[in-house]
Amino acid sequence: MRSGMAVVILVAGLAACAAHAAPRPAPAPRADLQTGIDLYNAGQYAEAEAALRDDAQPRARAYRAAALAKLKRYAEAEALANGVLESSRTDDMAVQALGQALVSQEKIDEAVARLSAAIAAKPDLAYAYYWRGQAYDKQKKASSMASDFQAFLKLAPNAPEAKLVQAVLAGLR
Predict the structure, then answer these.
(1) 67, 73, 150, 154: which one has the fewest Cβ atoms less than 10 Å from its Cβ?
(2) Domain that holds residue 98
(3) pLDDT tens, 154-166?
(4) Residue 13: exposed, middle, or buried by beta-carbon count in 10 A (0-12, 13-18, 19+)?
(5) Within a domain: 14
(6) Residue 170 main-chain phi, psi, to 5 deg
């Protein structure tokens, strides 16, 4: 009988301790997010998109949108980027995906407007300048394009697109 009483007291004590214990930390982001980001950064866009497909975190959705844009699935990229930007107006990857999607679909005026709004909210979004510069190029606004490309190079001098942008600017001189 005493051992039964000890078990009841032990269980009650554990329940009391659990009730007053410090809250558990939030779970760490899923490994799929980092895997997807690593695949994206390695240029493995289809694999990145697949790794991120079921992850509902905004950052995962932003990278997935960027991967879709690289895969030339522009309408999907645009929709997904817009969803991310509803809650985070200046997510750099979502802005990059949206810019590429809009310019590639020839939605030039919308690209300029949306990217200008993103730059106004957060002036250090390098790829917002890059894609707005691309849009200005399609509008035949060389001085605006050059200004945005210079801003892009200042913010992202080692970006993969930097050499191409430098060549375009050199050609304008």
Answers:
(1) 154
(2) 30-172
(3) 999 999 999 999 9
(4) exposed
(5) no
(6) -65, -35
3-class SS at 89? Answer: coil
The DSSP secondary-structure symbol of 21 reads S
Is 22 domain-assigned?
no
Q: What are the pLDDT digits (tens) for 86-138?
A: 999 899 999 999 999 999 999 999 999 999 999 999 999 999 999 999 999 99
Amino acid at 84: V
Question: In a 3-state reduction of DSSP, which class is residue 160?
Answer: coil
Residue with tokens 């779970």: 27
- CB contact at 8 A, 66 and 97: yes
Question: pTM of this prediction?
Answer: 0.81
Q: Confirm whether 128 is domain-assigned.
A: yes
CA distances, 160 to each of 44, 150, 156, 166 (Å): 15, 15, 9, 11
